[in-house]
Design goal:
A hairpin with a 2-residue loop joins strand 6 and strand 7. This protein is α+β, with helices and mostly antiparallel strands. About 4% of the residues have low confidence. The chain is built from twelve helices and eight strands. It has a four-stranded antiparallel β-sheet, with helices on both faces. A two-stranded antiparallel ribbon has the order 1-2. The chain has a two-stranded antiparallel ribbon with strand order 3-8. Among the domains are: 75 residues, no CATH class; 107 residues, Chitinase A, domain 3 (Roll), CATH 3.10.50.40.
Length: 297
Amino acid sequence: MKRLISIFFGVILVLPAMAQNVILDDDVGIDREELERVVASWTSQMQQAAANDLGDRMELLNLSLANKKIARAAQQMSPEADPDVYWEYMFKLRNFQRRFMAEQFLDKLEIPDMSALAAERYETEKDTYALVPEHRISSHILFKCLPGECNRNELRPQAQAVLDELLQGADFAEMVESHSQDPGSKDSGGVFNKWMKAGEPGVTPPYVWALFQIDEEGHYSELVETQFGFHIIRLDGVKEHYYQPYEKVKLQIIDTLRTDYKKLAVKEYDAQFRMSDDVYIDGEAMDEIFLKYKTPE
């Protein structure tokens, strides 16, 4: 009789625990609160698919349960069974935890109004935030000579002869038509249809440098050698540098200040977890551990 009473009360105690799980398989369960959180984390497309199609629902639930089973398997790893795999997992887990805690800290961080500071930075660091540098546009004649495909020593005098004719007043468009081997610009009179600033990315540096050495519109560069061959560059136009008004760059400055504030705040948050003045370090153990990494004398 006592045995039956014991079994009865044991069942009574187990039932509420089992009832909490809305999914249970292989001793891994998901209770209602957890499942609601899981579903809330899905995309709206996934949520709608699970709500409207039983097959999609089962597939998504299956994936969620599998994730929990895999997590349990990971937690069961031990340094005794496979120390390399165990510690790799632990280090990756710690790195994730570090990033996660930093993200949580930033989510709750209250950032002050940066408007006044932004206005001050506009005045004190105008070149950084508001300067639009000088831009130039050009035309060119390309004497194509890719590495290994022609003799540049033989081609250089030919290109120089064309430049000399231009300097003496020859028509540039005619010279482009007769000599240029750049398929991208030859049909448009040699125009390199791109306004560029000094150091323009995506354009071979010798070309840009030479363009900014030309002192007047309509004038030519010296012969410019690039990986494509030799260029004769004509300066066609100049847009002088200027400063954008504050209202146009205000949001950009504020965004930069907010980013800097967050970086400093995270650094201070991280500092509280660094070694304290009361830290204990076993010097003898340190020497033993690092001995094999020491540079031989």
